[in-house]
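Section 3.1: Structural characterization of target chains.
Under the original work plan, the team committed to producing a structural model for every single-chain target entering the pipeline before any wet-lab resources were allocated. The record below documents one such target. The sequence was received from the expression subgroup and is listed exactly as submitted; it comprises 567 residues.
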Amino acid sequence: MKTYTNLVSMNRGTCAEVGPRTALRYKRFGRYTDLTWNDLRAQADKCAAGLIQLGVQPGDRVAIFAENRYEWIITDLAILSTGAADVALHAPLAPEQAAYQLENSGSRGVFVSNQKQADKVFAVIDELPQLEFLISFEPIISPVPESRLKVLSWEGLKQRGWSQWVELRPEIERREQAITGDDLATLIYTSGTTGHPKGVMLSHGNLVTNAAAVLSISAIYPQYVILSWLPYSHIYARTVDLYVTQMIQGVIALADSVETLIPNLREIQPHWMTSVPRFYEKVWGNIERLPEEKRGPALKGIFGRRLHHLASGGAPLPKHICEAFNGLGVPLLEGYGLTETSPVIAFNRFGKVRPGTVGQAIPGVDIRIAEDGEILSRGPHIMQGYWQNPEATAEVIVDGWFHTGDVGEIDDDGFLSITDRKKDIIVTSSGKNVAPTEIERLLTKHPLIDQAVVYGDNRNFITAILVPTFDLLESKLKEQGVALKTDDEFIDQPEVMEFFTKIVEEQMQHVSNPERVRRFLVLSRPFSLADDELTATQKVRRRHIIAKYEQELEALYSGGATYANGD
């Protein structure tokens, strides 16, 4: 495997070696279209030349505010080729949130996917005096004529660049050759639960070395096809789906959306896929209802005949799901990392899986456990720091060791287990430390509980908000001749509460008395991204949900609510 100093040289190296082969596969007008490595590079060069014409200089920041699409990948490469860094904005951001990240990063321009995203920028343009241009992948209506913002189409930008390509090519080559591993490649803002998010600075060296380390332990090969759906505004998909695949000369097949993953799997028949636990939980929720002899064929049928393995990250993977997939012949490998670590710290190897752990440290990465149980990591994957925030950087990087904020253990074979978030540890009024993720995992292990959040800091017992698996619950109630009522925010039907009281009592037998959920609420809808209750990678935002429903949770401590475990 070749070594590269930056992401641009890595991409150009692949294009030079396998230019006529397929690089990207995406749907257009309902049919799949293939883009070769040569086509990919040619479009990126046009875009880079267009950006230079707009005045973009090395060290500048240019934002991408769009959902996953093939133009996102090309734009990323183009921005990097100018010597600038991209600022990856999460597509669901509200105008005010986008404004903060654009202003804080000092972005000179922004790429958007369509009218909807453009309108978010137009709505806050007065707050963005440094923003000079907006480029849209799809045609849009320009803002008011008096607006100072230069608005261009994607095709228009590439045409401008191509018309000056001969003159600008030497400049692009000069800029690319000047890029070092220490140069900033991307700014990604963490999804903070309080206050403004922090901009994580990741360098070319961070991302190239992390991709190479992941590749060195991954059983993936040239021309392997990955089905890619996780948002590129998160570093998990950027490093593993995009950069690892570019490094191995594979094929990136874009899913239409999270809602179409199952049909897309049938169409693409990928060799591998990365995902978050939420997707695997939903798949297993359906497979688990089948007779045992049908589960294996059904699971393999979903992921296709070419599947080599699946990867999971972004949140804890329930141990029973990992065991079930692997036991049925569908390899599911869990890893661990954070935005600040580019992101991979540890990963289970193919053929060497230990369910319930996130694997061993990847090559070049050091891990140790602090006295208080916090996981620390050191190596070339650690971010350069938080953008314009040296105080916050100094809090998490001490003597070269990054403090993850997660609590864990390392066994004698070097396998890392995550037990909880350090800041999420619940301390009851009796002084008992309770790991909420462990309790939530136990609850959601039952087929009737889809999502769960537990509560109880400084309280004398633990409570929870439960989200049912609605289709299964409706089926159970139908057997009793009862219809499910979801008119109110919380469900209080006697039949439903009876179901969940028994389930909670059952599941809580596996933990100590102080850790057991004693009272609970049943939400009448799933947690959602639109309500800011999930991150873009489908991770439950516990603190946000608790803040939202704190009044209802507090009421559980004053009586009149459902008890479990005999209280």
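Residues 37-53 form the longest helix (17 residues).
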